[in-house]
Amino acid sequence: MRRQVWTIVAMLGLGVLALWAQGDASTPDCAPEALQSQQNAFAQVLTLDFVGNPSRALENLYRLGGFYQQMATRCGYQPSEEERAAAIAWVLSFASLDEIIAARAVGGDVDAVLAQLETIVGDPLNGQLLFTGQVAALDGSTLGCAGCHNGQTAPPTEGMWTRADEVRLKDPALAGYSIERYFVESILHPNAYIAPDYMPNLMPDIYGRQLDIEQLADLVAFLSSQDQLDY
Ligand code: HEC
Asked: Atom 26 in ligand 1: which residue has the minimum CA distance?
């Protein structure tokens, strides 16, 4: 649970502090008291905004993350363990972890997802890290993609794009599909089309709840880079 919460908060900006904390702590508005009063003021604004308006929770969490990022870049400020714990507790007093994850998750509407993907450039490297479990998904869990996609349990990762292009999309059952649609549907609804020679009901039908749109774009970008001829 704790790790999950930390992943969420990290995505909201707190986690990059270690990398960004290079600001100049000697300027007056970076003095501890100045920072403390800024934090208090900000907390009050957020709290007021939250009250009676739970749907704003997520948006405000991003603002909180942005605020911490600013403090890190401007002042080199890094929160202590206690402050992190308090920030997490505070965040969770407004919206449960499940609510936050659900609000961020891509869901299962393939058309809507494809429309969103048009505006996003996926990062194939991060997609690979997600695929191999080196980077956590939205809910802090590790995706098991690479463990299955070894060519035995599930179609091999190598040549995934080429196989989709030259084999799958030739199947009349997928008439009119783009490769992107095929990948998105394969990830969000694994049983919508079962790759020949493989078992149905094996790939988990959960990724729409575990990925946000950027992570899905990253995975699709990674799979699209699998254009080896030898599959
Ligand atoms: C428990 C095993 C398992 C896991 C974990 C798993 N898959 Fe699969 N996947 C399969 C199997 C089996 C198939 C083939 C049957 C089917 O089409 O559903 C498949 C099919 C696919 C296909 C279509 C491949 C093709 O050659 O047509 C894609 C794309 C895919 N998976 C992506 C992913 C991604 C991305 C993840 C992680 C987010 C993932 N899978 C996790 C078992 C798994």
From this structure: 155
- Pick from 113, 141, 149, 223 the residue to mutate for probing ligand 1's pocket: most ligand atoms within 8 Å of its CB: 149
Answer whether 133's CB lies under 8 Å from 146's CB.
Answer: yes
Residue 137, classified by CB atoms within 10 Å of its CB into exposed (0-12), middle (13-18) or buried (19+), is buried
Put residue 133 in one of left, alpha, beta given phi > 0 → left and psi -120 to 50 → alpha. left
Instruction: Extract the tokens encoding 140.
Output: 């802090």
Q: Write the CA distances from 28 to 41, 75, 140, 174, 209, integer angstroms.
A: 17, 10, 38, 63, 44
> Using CA atoms, how far apart are residues 227 and 231, in angstroms rounded to an integer?
9
Q: CA 53: distance to chain centroid?
A: 24
Calpha distance 5→2 (Å, rounded): 5
Cβ-contact 142, 133 below 8 angstroms = yes
Residue-level pLDDT, tens digit, the chain, 231 residues: 445 555 555 555 443 443 444 456 667 778 888 888 877 777 776 666 655 455 566 666 667 777 777 888 888 888 787 877 777 777 677 777 788 788 889 999 999 999 999 999 999 999 999 999 999 898 888 999 999 999 999 999 999 999 999 999 999 999 999 999 999 999 999 999 999 999 999 999 999 999 999 999 999 999 999 998 655
Whether the Cβ atoms of residue 143 and residue 130 lie closer than 8 Å to each other: yes
For residue 155, which atom of ligand 1 is closest to its CA?
26
Contact status, residue 139 vs residue 209, Cβ threshold 8 Å: yes
